[in-house]
Amino acid sequence: MTTLPSLPRVTLGRSALQLTPIMLGTMTFGEQVDEPTAHAILDRALALGIDAIDTAEMYAVPARRETFGATETIIGRWFAARPGVRRKVVLATKVAGPSRGMDWVRGGAMDLTPQAIVQACEDSLRRLRTDVIDLYQIHWPNRNAPTFGALYLDPAQDRAQTSILTQLQALDGLVRAGKVRHIGLSNETPWGVCEFLRLAEQHGLARIVSTQNAYALTNRVPDNGLDEVLHHGGVSLLAYSPLAFGALTGKYDADGFDPAMAAPGRLALFESMRRQRWGRPEALAAARRYNALAREHGLSPAQMALAFVYGNWRVASTIIGVTSVAQLEQAVAAWGTTLSPELLAAIDAVRWTLRDPAQ
């Protein structure tokens, strides 16, 4: 049976919040993963020593009206069925930013107001069956910003919206009310992180402790300046999608996107996800290069991809999303894998040529 080595505790930002350097991502719960399986994964994660769970109000993914809030509800029922477990877990969730075509989230509002932040938090607390959220995050920026695969800022798309200061004041109010212990961001840019820090300092408001951004071999965007901001600003990186939606496991190297494959993943099952950054032809071509490199060095593609993120100085904790207990155990087993200087140099050589195709 897989066991997790004794893990160091990591501290988020300049706070007292500590957690394991592996977090369990849950966005598949309620779509690919049914409730009994989700509860089995949660049980096994806790048994393996993982004490942090990340979710969001908009989950399950791909987002649908019918599954909005389903993941939080599943987690809440898990807590309710296991008295005492909530105290052992660092619980993180997120309030959705302005609508990305989801008219079932606050009526498709294009602005994240203070009232919406407070109500979303109340709704998450109810679904999660808890009286406090350890880490409450804004899922994506409220302002016009290049996110989710967009390469460039288009100033023509700027619009009037709730300011960062006003959002920060709403989050600070949740902290003061005891409903949230710490706050963070997600899918944020270097400027956004700097502005949240500046305004918190200027106005004596709660300080962000983390930002949750994609980080994988095919998407090392945090290396391009965000890392400097986080390092000097005392903000931690929570890395999501370290396996690039499964592309860095090798499962798509030969079988393509056939949903009938032995272990179909999100890119095979959902056409909407194939149209996103992880399913771009150039991103898949880069994944094949990295997967081949792993095999040349006697590692599985997933083992190398996870080890790269686990061991990176930029990353405080890595969010692993799985659809089975077996996948969870495989991801855990990669902890402690050391990549040689020669292999790291080879990885950088691939990136020098292909850059970040899943940006």
TrEMBL record:
Question: Is-annotated flag, keyword Phosphoprotein?
Answer: no
Which keywords appear in this protein's UniProt record, sorted alphabetically? Oxidoreductase
Concerning Pfam families, the annotation shows: Aldo_ket_red
Q: Which InterPro entries match?
A: AKR, AKR_Detox_Biosynth, NAD(P)_OxRdtase_dom_sf, NADP_OxRdtase_dom
> Where in this chain does the record put each NADP-dependent oxidoreductase domain?
21-350
- Which CDD domains does the entry link to? AKR_Tas-like
Cite the Gene3D superfamilies for this sequence.
Answer: NADP-dependent oxidoreductase domain
Task: Name it.
Answer: Aldo/keto reductase
* Native source organism of the sequence: Pseudaquabacterium rugosum
